[in-house]
(S)-benzoin forming benzil reductase (Paenibacillus violae), 253 residues
Amino acid sequence: MPAYIITGGSKGLGAELARQLLHQGTAVHCVSRGESPSLRQEALSMKGDYTFHAYDLAQTDGLDSLMERILGLVDRADAITLINNAGQLEPMTFIGRADQGDLQMSLQVNLVAPTLLTNSFIRQTQALPIKKRVVHISSGAGKKPYPGWGAYCTAKAGLDMLTRCIGVEQMEQPYPVEVISVAPGVVDTGMQREIRAASEEDFPQLRRFVKLHADGELQSPEATAAQLLELLQRDAFTQGEIADLRTKKELSS
């Protein structure tokens, strides 16, 4: 049975990825601060195996032990995928106005935690002769600067470069770990509600996102998860690729 480890798996895109994988009969390990009661209930009637791991990703010192514990439960899997999905937009304000602690928290959750988890995952699975993959859920914000999203844009750009570096490093390994970074597009999740609740002073592009919602142009988590999983299961990505899910889907169809 293939195994998936999903951070931020209690809501939004992460929860929908977990839900669809469980329907397919996959072993799913969700990592987040709080559990989704509805996902746990649904998992009882699904074919896959669901395990929840309560963990605050801002507590970076324990991430290596967390990964060791999870991998110890999936040691008989024929393929293992880590999806670094967890993220936060806060603090949504200009650099120079942000609270120091909020900035540190943002970078820990959005960049430091996925970097450490990926490092631990590769170290502990490098010698395994099975399919191994790390998927970073990135954003167009990693390529384009948005005023008010300085910390978020910086973290996503960092994840994209981390992906490129690991892609080069893994090419010569006997049992390589595939690493990709995927921007899913504008998905209708709680993060979008946070954006619409922001002030225009802190986020000057507020009206654009309000209009996307009003015009029904946000993608659903269900459709986005289905597109991503379909491409992953077709091995449609290349090592170290930085992909946009919307254009990738069009090119692959």
In short: DSSP finds nine helices and seven strands in the chain. The longest helix spans residues 100-125. The radius of gyration is 18 Å.
